Amino acid sequence: FCYYCGLLGHTEDSCDKLYSVKVDDDIREWGPELRPEVRWRGQETSSRWLRDDEQVRWQTPNQERDTSINEAITEIRGDISTKFIVIVTLAYS
Question: CA angle, 80 as apex, 78 and 81 as ends, to 5°?
Fold first, then answer.
């Protein structure tokens, strides 16, 4: 990210707009505060919307936890992906 022109794909070191000005006033519209906060594995997030897949999924206040449904969905998804691989393999062989 270029802090000078605000475009992705290059940095100030290769910014055509920066090199086209005669004198650089060192004033930038953007700065390092745009960078996302680095999270380490195992560190909890402060936002309820940004959770890892390993954490509990959202549920309504009165909803009971039924792990058998989640297991059935996982089993179905696994079965579908296995069938898909077999079909693709047969189609291209």
Answer: 65
